[in-house]
Predict the structure of Aspartyl/glutamyl-tRNA(Asn/Gln) amidotransferase subunit C.
Amino acid sequence: MPSITREEVAHLAKLSRLELSDAELDHFAGQLDAIVSAVARVGELPTEHVPPTSHPQPLTNVFRADIVRPAGTPVLDRAEVLAQAPAAEDERFRVPRILGED
């Protein structure tokens, strides 16, 4: 079984520019050892007859279908969109000034 030593954790912490106390080094060494051991156990499973996959479940496209429109045709109705805005003026969204310009 793999065993992550305290010195290896200290080396990783140094590479990551992390300052760890002695108690943290011991704590993380145990945690990392448990993780590496769990991953090693997965590698022991009999998977000769399991085809490689990128996802455990089939993927479904959740996007809407593309609709071809003539160039310049708006996708949303301007009046409907502006009606939902907190403020509108001259068929545009009205927003507060942020630069204090006149």
The two ends are 71 Å apart (CA to CA). DSSP finds three helices and two strands in the chain.
